[in-house]
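User: structure tokens for this one?
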Amino acid sequence: MAFESFEQIVQVCQEKSVSFAEAVIGEDMKDRLVTREATLEKMRYIWNSMLEAGRSYDENRISTSGLVGGDGGRMSHYADSGHTLCGDRMSRVIAQALQMGESNACMKRIVAAPTAGACGVLPAVLIPLFEETKQDCTSSASASEAPVLTEDDFVLSLFVAAGIGQVIATRASIAGASGGCQAEIGSASAMAAGALVFLRGGSCDAIVQSAAMSLKNLLGLVCDPVSGLVEVPCVKRNVIGAVNAMSAADMALAGIKSMIPADQVVDAMKEVGDLMDVSLRETGRGGLAATREAIEITKKIQGISK
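Assistant:
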């Protein structure tokens, strides 16, 4: 895809009277010289892989380091209690984000969206909604309260997420090593927010507004993995990325706009990432990775006695 700005995507949407997803599909077809069917087939494969990664979570599996594992199961059981502060849907989102992040740490097959470290954000907002949609199809009352979504809609929403991620990657970065965690969780959150707005029938502009607000909310987030592993605090940051995406999507759907244009938000993220000290960009030398507890954890993992 050759889009270099959100402005370009919105312009295509307006000039061709197509959705955000269709604008991205058209560009992908042109860029890779493939048919529409081939483009959709590849994205459907990614969607099914994401679903399978969600279904295959094992709450009894612990990462080799022993740092993560089981929290996704704990959150899921807590959600089942019906006594959560966040309510059922948000609790499911939190659980899914934890589960996907833990699966990554346990070396299971996941979908990098846009990176492995941020793999839990997009599925966390999409899979619970997809499961709800399947249940709603059996209830005419529920189906009448919100637009009926099909699996094809969720596949199309991934094109929206891909377009957002591609613009961020082109103008800034999606790698923690170059831009801090704002580039990973921040980008994933923007992608997830846009996908949600699309699924709720939001305009191209609303999609872009949600991406801008998501990214702004996580601007400056550092990448400070304990022991250099994509586990702590990475897994739980997937949760905040997902929750942030949902709030930004709702704001955009309510008609709330970002005071700073989306492309300028991405440019600001790049500037912030460039200004970050190297210790805060995935090196495991600063931030939480430099705390006393983190140092002790690292010694234990490396088998070094104090």
